[in-house]
Structure formats: C-alpha cells, structure tokens
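Input sequence (355 aa), recorded before submission:
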Amino acid sequence: MLEATKSHDTLKAGAEADAAPLNPALAAEAKIARIAVTVFPLLVVAAGIAGFLLPGAFKPMAPGVPYLLGVIMFCMGLTLTPPDFASVVKRPWAVVLGIVAHYVIMPGAGWLIAVALNLPPELAVGLILVGCAPSGTASNVMAFLAKGDVALSVAVASVSTLIAPIVTPLLVLFLAGSFLQIDAGAMVLDIVKTVLLPVIAGLLARLFLKKLVAKVLPALPWASAVVISLIVAIVVAGSASKIVAAGGIVFLAVVLHNGFGLGLGYLAGKLGRLDDKARRALAFEVGMQNSGLAATLATAHFSPLAALPSAVFSLWHNISGAIVAAWLARRPLSDATGGAPVRGATARDTSARDA
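Predicted structure, token format:
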C-alpha cells in the first residue's frame, strides 16, 4: 500500500489539476501523493537500519504486527468510494485482465526465481508469499504519476484486496507447499481479520462519517507510511542476525521479481489490447505488492527470516515504481492500438467524473 495509503480524493484532484492547471489549490493537493512517494522509501530505509542496529527495541513488538497491518488496511478502506467499484462494472474486461495478470504473473515469477536461485526454504516461501499478496495502493499513486489510468488502477487494487482471503492462501499452498508446511485455513482467517474486516470497516466509516473522514484524509498517507515503516523495523529486527548472510541474494530475488512484474504487467495490457494509459496502470498493479500483508503472514505462519523478502520488497518496489513512473510520464501516450502518440494527453483522460 503506499504502503503509505494514498488518498483517492488526492489523485482525483491531481488529475483535475492537470486538466485545469490554473487552479493552484488542486495542484497543491496533488503534490501530497508525490511527496509521500518520495519520503516513504526514506522512512523505510531508516526503519530497516533501526531494526538492524537495535533489534532488542523492535523484536518484542512482533505480536503487534497484525494489528499494525489492520490500521493500514482500515486507512485503505477510508479512501474507497462507490465510483471505485462502479469502474469494475463499466470495464469488467480490463479489471479482470488486471486481476488475472496480478495473481498469475507475480506468484509464478516468485516461484521461478526461488527455484532458479535455489533459495533456502524460508526465503523461498517468503518470496512466493510476496508474489501471492494483493496489489499495494502505492500502485495507484505510481499510475497517477505515470499518466496512467488511475480509475482502473484503483479498481484492480480494491478487487485484488477483497478476494485475497481466498486467492492468496490457495496460491501459497499450491506454490510453496513443497518448501514448507502451509496451514491455508489459518492463513485465510488471518487475512480476513487483518485485511478484509478493516477494509470493510474503513469503507463503512467513509460512507457514514463523511465529514469526520474528510478531515483526516490528508493525514492518511503519512500515518500509513509510519506504520508500515514500523512493520519493516520489526521484521528486520526479527532476522537481524541472518541479514548479513542472506541480504544479497534476497535483494537480487526481489529486484528480479519486481522487474518481471512491472514489465509483464505492461505486456499483459498490450496483449489484452488495452490503451496505453491502462497498460501503464497494469504495470504497477502487477509489479507492486501489499508487502505489509506478506510480512505479517510470513511472521505469523513461518519465521522472521521468511518475512525478510517482504521487508526488502517494501523498500524496493517504491523506489523502482517511482523511477518507472517518472520515465513513463516523460513518454507520450499512444492511441488504443499502441500506435501514434496522443497529443495533449493529460495524466488522466478518465477523470473523477467518469470513474
């Protein structure tokens, strides 16, 4: 999630600001997302260093990780609106393609990389678990910065999260069962408690406490950034003694995993004959994961070492995502067939009104 959870309203404002650049208030609002994307990796790096250098201070907090993830998912629920789900009905093919690509490419790539690099069982399961997690909402921010289809990005991220209690445990059982024993039933229950229920609670709060939620929305990216950074510090502290030996191979595995996701996600959109804006969105929806959930499940069901790929992924996918988004933003948008550039295209032709 950014893992700093984004404000969907902020992304809408940013898109409208592109269409009406004379409105300085909307332009300033859109900068929230950009600042959060810049600051978040720095917070995660600082948290990782703190966890490594001061494991005794963070290791005792391990039992609280599921509750911390619940806070992040509640924040995500607060950002969801009815138009997010209406987008699913309007464009079922694009959303289904994004969901299938996400839950096929990343789990498969995680398994292939784990086998190719001959990772130890705990690290292999951790990498596969990251691949089987739903999309992170940082992908929504990256899609916005890359001039991609934000409405599609939000729809895919939301649906992938809602179906995660069923899909994630089944995929982990199928792909990682040969490495370690998997209790899929317990994993389903954990995802329901730490993901589904908090998201639904946040969504209900958004519907029935609109004025109160409107006041706290600007603070959500920062609150989520701090919480996910704390999770990273706890995860790193739990495996601090093994990081020096395993850190290099884990970093290589994560870079490959994330790179395959970004590239093959864009390719999936191209093969599905989606327009360039949708392809950009799918690149981030496939390549960026809810690494907070993966770290939580790895810590609860396996070991702190199994959570190490999640911690590294949490840092790397925000750095790589920001770089790719900046590169794409400088490239002209192509037409629906991927041919001629679209002149004067804005960051989001499908505005909040069309979501």
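Checked by second reader. Residues 121 and 179 are 5 Å apart (CA to CA).
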